[in-house]
Design a protein that fits this description.
The structure is a homodimer of 412-residue chains. Chain A is α/β, with parallel strands linked by helices. Chain A has 3 domains: 2-172, Molybdenum Cofactor Biosythetic Enzyme, Chain A, CATH 3.40.980.10; 175-251, 2-Layer Sandwich (Alpha-Beta Plaits), CATH 3.30.70; 257-411, Maf protein (Alpha-Beta Complex). The first copy, chain A, has helices at residues 10-13, 20-31, 46-59, 77-84, 93-106, 153-172, 188-200, 227-245, 257-268, 282-287, 306-313, 317-323, 328-340, 390-411; strands at 2-8, 35-42, 62-66, 89-91, 119-121, 125-127, 136-141, 144-149, 175-183, 206-212, 215-224, 249-251, 272-276, 297-302, 346-352, 367-374, 377-384. Chain A has a 6-stranded mixed sheet with strand order 2-1-3-8-7-6, with helices on both faces. The first copy, chain A, has a 5-stranded mixed sheet with strand order 14-13-15-16-17, sandwiched between helices. A 4-stranded antiparallel sheet of chain A has the order 10-11-9-12. Chain A is elongated, with a radius of gyration of 27 Å. Chain A starts with a strand and ends with a helix. The mean pLDDT of chain A is 92. Chains A and B meet through helix 2, strand 2, helix 3, helix 10 and strand 14 of A and helix 2, strand 2, helix 3, helix 10 and strand 14 of B. Strand 14 of chain A pairs antiparallel with strand 14 of chain B, so a sheet runs across the interface.
């Protein structure tokens, strides 16, 4: 099956919002084995919308539209789709009831124009919207399919997962199952080289490697007649991949390193203390991004100035003077200081040069030292972030800290 | 002038990257008074590329392409454009020299396929690339214009600003000048209501309001024959806007509240200390996002547990027990504790319920108390973020802290 993703909304053409819907749907369709040939965006203009649909059907069998399903005058997506697909709009009472109960729930009066949303093409399969008011639908005509989804990303993704995906699976006569293994401590080119013997002979399951700041991942996907077969094929390939690069894998469920690290602390019942200089609170902030982090993070220090390092964590001022604030010695004392001044079982520290200024030949921008302390002692690590700017340096240092902390927790 | 933005790249159709180029260019063209009618994305496929260009020219006069200018086999954008525009590719020696010197600079050998990038349509106006290897260009034929830009966002924006913008300005016979006033402490609907007398009679300059998490802004834009006239018109309108909502404006230069707050501290020579509970380091992290923040941030505490609040900042354990950790009393003691335990001139604290759990009828998720202390005493503020999830709550609390801190600095 070949597809076009058609985004409808003048706000997109004005550049007021980034079109993440299209990225999301492209990824989802690819996983279903559906080829996306075009992305198309038009404003709330009936002629251009009609044109875009007619032209897309010249080369593709499936169009997924997002947007233009709302209650206002300029939301004309449904009308145009019904017209092109030789259908008419009819009132769907259960949609109307749903919209009414939505307004009851949020305690507001339903205005008259909201009723417009309850009209759907008569032959369509409705996609009910539990998280907003505008319903979506799938409509077939003459071997062509339109799936219409609302524009707000939260509603769109919810509705695609709940209704669009099962609908498309029923049309493709095959099931895709995939797993994403996420890794830390190996670069993408090394990963690809290591997996080349598997990639070279791949037909199904397919193997694809991806790189992200500081991390990389492998997607193992299989398209088979039944879910059972696809799962079995993925499991066999996963075992092969793990044989080669298993030591680097920290999640077989597409979780990120930050939450895996926090969960490892939680599972082991370890309390954490943080002592940050160059990251300025980013590491503590990251560890508290997730609900339930109060079970893990006891406290943290942001010791940005040299005096703060000495006052707050007892770092020896002479050591700062002789070795420099960015040194393994200072990182070690920050970590042991944080451990002794808290109720934590493990502490992590960082001192580095985030940039853009402050670097030297010996200690360039991007350099950081990390300390990890437990009652058994302290380890320090040197990290260089390949200086691509302050934000990059701080983010990658934080990711490195997660990687080293996770390794330490596993080795305890 | 009417335009289509045509993105070229299979990675977009796979959903591997978000198409931020199109958003950026849409915004830029809107500011130039050029109407964007379509966004279009095709893969590295010659037929579809050719089709997309021909179809776009049926309704629009200008096509801006991004991507497909690289050195590899599948980069065929230039060839197709030359063909459609009745032109031929020719070697541009100065581009070749530029690519050669780029490789010399980064100390790598130039491979043979890089020479492909030095071929440009013979009649084009070349856009030289100082930040990468692939040049862009503008090419006219029969009243139609194609501007070709490289795909990497950093190169694309650089080249658009340096070459594309002046080129288009020369074609539109008018100049746009605009200013963005950013505000805090007023909602978008209130802002729109307040400015309605100005908006209702607007022809030029135009006034547009925008809302962002916790903030809003007004864009004042004028399109005139000369820059002088446009600037004058914007200045007059700005004075009118300032008369009505000036008290809320924190930047007339589109800076964000976080950096304006940091710069205000810097300008006033004030040292800051932070004491965070629910934001877990986010505020300190934000204040250190910018270069030179070491002149401002002295130190920070992340007092996530109740014991940490007492141990680190001297918050009275009885007060926590009777008033609760999320209370104005605790916020005040955190702020005064941070001030007394640092060399700072001003301190800011926060204690709240980030969610998703931990809320009650009396103290719902999204509630936070902020304390700001100086040698003259401490003020506390109650904030409710309208609970839309943990990340939202924490981010908006941080923005509110910036707003209150900035107001306090200005009143000192």
């Amino acid at each position: 099956m070949k597809a076009t993703i058609l985004s409808i909304g003048t706000e997109l053409l004005f550049g007021q919002i980034v079109n993440t819907n299209t990225t999301y749907l492209s990824k989802q369709l690819q996983l279903l084995g559906i080829d996306v040939l075009y992305h198309f965006t038009v404003g709330d203009n009936e002629d251009r919308m009609r044109n875009a649909i007619l032209r897309s059907f010249e080369e593709t069998d499936l169009i997924i539209t997002t947007g233009g399903l709302g209650p206002t005058q300029d939301d004309a997506t449904k009308e145009i789709i019904a017209e092109v697909m030789n259908d008419k709009l009819e009132l769907d009472q259960s949609v109307l009831d749903g919209i009414q109960s939505f307004f009851d729930r949020i305690g507001r009066e339903m205005t008259e124009n909201n009723k417009k949303q309850a009209y759907l093409p008569s032959r369509c399969e409705p996609f009910y919207n539990d998280v907003g008011t505008a319903p979506g639908f799938a409509l077939e005509n003459d071997g062509k399919i339109v799936i219409a989804l609302p524009g707000p990303p939260r509603e769109m993704t919810y509705m695609f997962q709940k209704s669009g995906l099962p609908y498309l699976e029923s049309k493709t006569n095959s099931v895709i199952f995939y797993k994403i293994l996420r890794m830390w401590g190996i670069g993408e080119s090394q990963l690809e080289t290591d997996l080349l013997p598997l990639i070279d002979v791949q037909t199904d399951p397919t193997l694809a490697t991806y790189a992200k700041e500081g991390e990389c991942s492998v997607r193992i996907a299989s398209k088979r007649a039944t879910l059972e077969e696809a799962k079995q094929a993925v499991a066999e390939m996963e075992a092969n991949v793990m044989n080669i690069v298993g030591e680097f894998v920290y999640s077989d469920n597409d979780e990120d390193l930050q939450s895996v690290t926090l969960n490892a602390l939680k599972t082991e019942g370890l309390k954490l203390a943080t002592a940050e200089s160059c990251t300025g609170g980013l590491f503590a902030k990251t560890m508290t991004d997730f609900a339930g982090s109060s079970a893990v993070l006891d406290r943290g220090w942001v010791t940005y100035s040299n005096e703060a390092k000495t006052d707050m964590l007892g770092v020896d001022a002479d050591i700062i003077a002789t070795k420099g604030a960015v040194s393994p010695e200072v990182a070690a004392q920050m970590a042991t200081g944080a451990l002794s001044k808290s109720n934590a079982d493990i502490s992590i520290s960082v001192t580095g040069i985030a940039g853009p200024d402050g670097g030297s030949e010996e200690k360039p921008v991007g350099l950081a030292y990390i300390g990890i302390a437990t009652k058994d002692g302290v380890h320090t690590y040197k990290y260089f972030s390949n200086n691509k700017g302050r934000e990059w340096n701080r983010y990658n240092t934080m990711i490195y800290m997660c990687g080293k902390l996770l390794a330490q927790i596993k080795s305890l």
